[in-house]
Amino acid sequence: MLKNFGFALLLSSMFAMLITSTIPARANDIGSVIYNTKVVTLQETKINAVGSTVGQYGYQVFNPGAIGYTTARTMTPGLINGRAKRRGSTDAWLNFVITPAKPFGSWDHFGGHQSSSDLWEGEIWVDGFLKISNDANWRASCSNHLSGNYAYCTTSFNQLIARLIKAKSNHHFHKNNYIDNNFSTADNA
Amino acid sequence: MLKKQSRSFTVIFFFAVFFTISAVVFVFIALKKHTEVTIEKDYINDIVQHNNFSNQVHTDSLWGSPRGIGIGFVWPEERKTPPEYRSQTEEIDLGDKKSLDPLLILTTSRKTTVLVSVILDYQQIPFEMDGQIGLLHEVNILPGGDFEIPIRIPITSPGVHDLIVVAFADPYNGSLDANFRSALDVDVVGRRAQIISSGKSKPAIQGLEVIEGEPVPGDVALGLGVSFAAKPKPGETTHPSERQLYVSSGKTSELYQFDIWASNLNGEMASEYALLVFKNFHQINVDDRNVLLINLNQNEEAIINAEIKLSEKPGIDQIQIVYVFDPYKSILHEEVRAAFVFNSPRLAIEVR
Questions:
Q1: Closest-approach residue (CA) in chain A for B90
Q2: Which of B9, B69, B244 is the closest to A137 by Cβ?
Q3: pLDDT tens track for B8-37
Q4: Interface touch A170/B184, C-beta < 8 Å
Q5: Nearest-5° angle of CA A87, CA A180, CA B325?
Q6: Cβ contacts of A157 on chain B, cutoff 8 Å
Q7: Is B10 in the A-facing interface, judged by CB distances under 8 Å?
Q8: Which of A174, A46, A81 minimizes the C-alpha distance to A122?
Q9: What SS3 string covers chain A?
Q10: Nearest-CA residue of chain A relative to B65?
Q11: A18-45 pLDDT tens trace
Q12: Cα–Cα distance, B114 to B108 (Å, whole number)
C-alpha cells in the first residue's frame, strides 16, 4: 500500500515537474545588459554593512541579473585592449536586528546599488529601488548622482517578519563624445 | 482483495493529483495568456518599418562587443575615430544649414525592436532615417556592433534648439502584468543635443508656465523620478507612493483620470523637469501644453492631476513620460543637472 502510494506520488511529482518546466519564464527585462548566468558570491567586500556577513541572508550573493556591464572602445592608457567597462550591480540582503523598540527582533531588508566605470564620467548615476518580491509597489528608493567613476546608495525597510525582496538599480553613464549607456540590474533575497 | 483495493486507491489518487495539477496549470496558462499580450502593429500609427537598410547603414564591430542599449551620434567622417578624439556632439552649430545630418548609433546586447523618434524643442516631429521620412521608425537592432544609421532632422527656424532622439524599446509588448510593468526598467533610451541655428542665441521657445514643487512628506521614503498614481477616491488623501499605477483598464474613448507624480527625493540638486507625455508613442498635450515644466528643489515633489482620452478601438493603450532636466541650458558647459533622457514606467491601460 505504502509502496504504491509512494509510486503514485513519484509519478505525480514527475508530471508536475514536466508541466511546470514548459511554462515560459516571465518576460525579460528590457534594456538590460549581458548578465552573469549563475549565482556567484563575490569574495571582495567593498561595502561593510554593519552586522552583515558575506553570504548570509543574501548579503553579497549576486543572483543572475544582479551584475551587468557594457564596454566602450577607448584609447585610455592602461585599459586592456583599449576597452573601458561601465558596470552596474545590485545586492539584496536581510539582516536580523534587535533594538530597544523591537526587543524580540525584526528584519532589516536592504538593497545596495552601485554604478562604476573605467572612464571618468561626466555623469555617473545610480537610482535604487526596493520592494517585497510579489508586490507591484515599490517601498524605498535612493539616488546617488555624481561625476567620476563610482556611485553607490542603499535602500532599506524594516519588518517584523522576513520577506522575499527584490532590489532594482538603474545605471546611467554619460561622457562627452561617448554614447550614453543606460541599463538596469536587479537582485533578490 | 486487499491488493486490488490498494491498486484502485493508487489509480484514483494518481488521477486526482493529475487532474488537480492540470487544472492549476490551465488556470495559470489562461491567466498568463490574459496578461501577456502582443499589440498589433496597426494599433500604433505612423510607423515606418526599416526591414532592409541601404548601404549607408553600417554595423561597426571594431569597438569590441557592444552590450546594453546605447545611443549616441557620430559624424560620418569620424566613424573610424576613437570616441575621445571625435568632435563633441552636445552642442552643434549648424551655421546656415537647414538640417542636422549625423549618424545615429544604437547598440544592444540582444535583438531588440525599437521605435526611434525625434523631439525638437519639446515637440515630436517627423524626420528622415535612411532615406525614409516618418514620425516613428521601427528598427530591429542586433548585437554585434555599433549600428550606425544616417538621419536627417529639419531645423528650419533660427535660434537655440533642444534636440532629443529617443528609442522606445519593445513597443509591441502589451503585457498587463503589474509586476512586469513596475519593473522600472530603462525601456527608453535617448540622447540630447543643443543645436544653434543661424548664429542666434535665443531659445526657440520661451515663456512656458512652470509648476512649483512642494516638500516630500516626512514619512515618505520613496521617489520614483516621474511615475503614475491612480486617481484617489473622493475624500482619500493617500500619498501617490501608496497609489502606484502600472496597469489599468477603461472603456473606448473614455476620459481616463490619473496622477502624474514627479519626485526629487534624495536628488542632490534642484532642477527644472521637462515632461513629455506619450500615448502609444505619440506625444500628447497635457492641459493644451506639449511640455510640462516642473521646478523641483531637493526633496520636493509635484502631483499633477491628468486625464487622457483612451483609444476609440479596443486594445492596449500605453502611456509613458519621457523627461529631461533644465531645458535650453547648455549641456556642453555643464549647466544642466544631467544630460540623460529619463522615462517613467510604461503604464498599460486595457481598453475594452
A1: A176
A2: B244
A3: 777 777 777 777 777 766 666 665 555 678
A4: yes
A5: 115
A6: 221
A7: yes
A8: A174
A9: CHHHHHHHHHHHHHHHHHHHHCCCCCCCCCCCCCECCCCEECCCCCCCCCCCCCCHHHCCEECCCCEEEEEEECCCCCCHHHEEEEEEEEEEEEEEECCCCCCCCEEEEEEEEEEEEEEEEEEEEEEEEEEECCCCCCCEEEEEEEEEEEEEEEEEEEECCCCCEEEEEEEEEECCCCCEEEEEEEEEC
A10: A71
A11: 443 333 333 322 222 333 333 333 333 3
A12: 11
Amino acid present at A110 = F
Q: Which amino acid appears at position A126 of this protein?
A: V
Cβ-based neighbours of B297, under 8 Å, separated by 6 or more: B213, B264, B270
8 A C-beta contact, residue B89 and residue B65: no
Residue B38 CA, chain-centre distance (Å), reads 17
Please give the residue of chain B at the shortest CA–CA distance from A125.
B338
Position B299, amino acid: N
Place of cell 562627452: A176
Q: How many CA atoms lie within 13 A of B98 on its CB side?
A: 2
